Amino acid sequence: VMEAGEYKEKGNKLFVNKKFSQALECYLEAIKLAPNEGLYHLNASMAYLKLLKFSEAGQHAEEAIRLISPHLSDIESTSTSSTNTSTTSPSPSTSTSTPTSTPTSTSNNHKILLAKAYYRLAEVNDNVTC
């Protein structure tokens, strides 16, 4: 029986190899085992984004923010200019590909939430590995 962290690591390997559906399955298994781990929700959100499932991506991004925010100060007030940083994004968000279709404003909001969560998490921990 795999532990939550093992599912996350397996998911990360699949994500890097662009097997987003399989990665998502692993992240969701990790969430079942450790539902209060914000990083697992962030990873699931990224996989959903890659699968163009923006509503689900937003839900997991919001859950990650809810779980992580007690450790952060005022995550929602982060200005858009503060997201411009040289900090390397944690895996699995290293892929820079974007959807070929024009995203809706709703999907942009989900991406912004996710980006804020990753950025603020990286601020707290320089060695974040999602």
Task: Please provide a written account of the structure.
This protein is an all-alpha fold. It is built from 5 helices and no strands. It has helices at 4-16, 20-33, 38-50, 54-68, 105-124. Helix 1 packs antiparallel against helix 2 (20-33), helix 3 runs antiparallel to helix 5 and helix 4 (54-68) runs parallel beside helix 5 (105-124). The radius of gyration is 14 Å and the shape is globular. The two termini are 21 Å apart.
Shape descriptor reads globular
**End-to-end separation:** 21 Å
The ordered H/E elements are HHHHH
Helix content: 55-70%
The largest sheet, given as strand count, sense and whether it forms a barrel, is: none
Structural class: mainly alpha
Low-pLDDT runs of 5+ residues are 78-91, 93-104, 125-129
Q: What is the count of DSSP helices, taking H or I runs of 4+ residues?
A: 5
Number of extended strands: 0
Output the radius of gyration.
14 Å
Overall average pLDDT: 72
What fraction of the residues are assigned to beta strands by DSSP? under 5%
